[in-house]
Design brief:
By secondary structure, the protein is α/β, with parallel strands linked by helices. The protein contains 9 helices and 5 strands, in the order ααααβαβαβαβαβα.
């Protein structure tokens, strides 16, 4: 049942996304103008959607949702020694992933950078603009999900157990990827790249709604739901 529900909901995206907003507003308009007996419900629904999005767009709320992810402390970049291969997972906050990968390359000069994901060509094209030589970049677009990306790493480590490897993801994705790696017994450093645009963390601006904060709320809520689903399927530990 939960699998069928998620297969329907996933294309709509999480609360905080534009597709979810359009769907919620459309439902409210139908209730408001479709039937006389549901007009009051429709009006209350529309007001509720607007208020919800204003709340999610507050940096204070966005930061709170993100920091409440399990294992949020793992998002700090670990100390990494020699590095032979760097793997970059495609996903949300791509610019932050590119920034983290380029910074690591500048310090440690790995021999290869693999980008994984069905839309990984964006990462491959953007990394040279961040200072990474195109000759060291490799790509695998057959890994369409986070689980497939982690499985790719597991196979790679199995073939090359002596290589020093690290993985770059979004800092919001770190808890889920870390759970998958731990479940598979894969011990590699995990680097949490920054969000493309970080919301304010102090001052009066914490209460001023912004689209940047709305995006963070959306991404963090998605990770909360994904973690719950992964636990339900037994893919990560409870």
């Amino acid at each position: 049942m939960i699998d069928t529900l998620l297969s329907i909901v996933k294309p709509i995206d999480a609360p905080g996304s534009i597709p979810f907003l359009f769907l919620a507003l459309a439902a409210g308009l139908v209730l408001r103008f479709g039937w006389r007996r549901t007009r009051a419900i429709g009006f209350a629904w529309l007001v509720g959607v607007v208020v919800l999005y204003l709340i999610l767009a507050m940096p204070l709320v966005a930061n709170g949702i993100a920091s409440s992810l399990p294992g949020a402390a793992l998002t700090a970049t670990p100390n990494i020694g020699p590095l032979d291969t760097l793997v970059v997972f495609d996903g949300d906050n791509r610019r932050g992933r590119v920034h983290a990968a380029a910074e690591l390359f500048g310090h440690l000069h790995p021999q290869a950078i693999w980008v994984l994901g069905r839309e990984a060509d964006w990462l491959r094209n953007e990394l040279p603009n961040a200072g990474v030589p195109s000759g060291v970049i490799r790509m695998d677009q057959a890994t369409g999900t986070t689980r497939e990306q982690v499985a790719w790493v597991e196979r790679y480590v199995g073939r090359e157990p002596r290589l020093h490897l690290a993985i770059v993801v979004s800092r919001l994705q770190v808890p889920r990827v870390w759970g998958l790696l731990a479940r598979g017994g894969i011990a590699v450093p995990l680097v949490g790249g920054p969000i493309d645009d970080e919301p304010p963390v102090g001052g009066a601006r914490l209460l001023v709604p912004t689209y940047i904060a709305l995006r963070v709320s959306r991404d963090a809520l998605y990770e909360h739901v994904a973690l719950a689903y992964y636990r339900h399927r037994g893919w990560i530990a409870q």
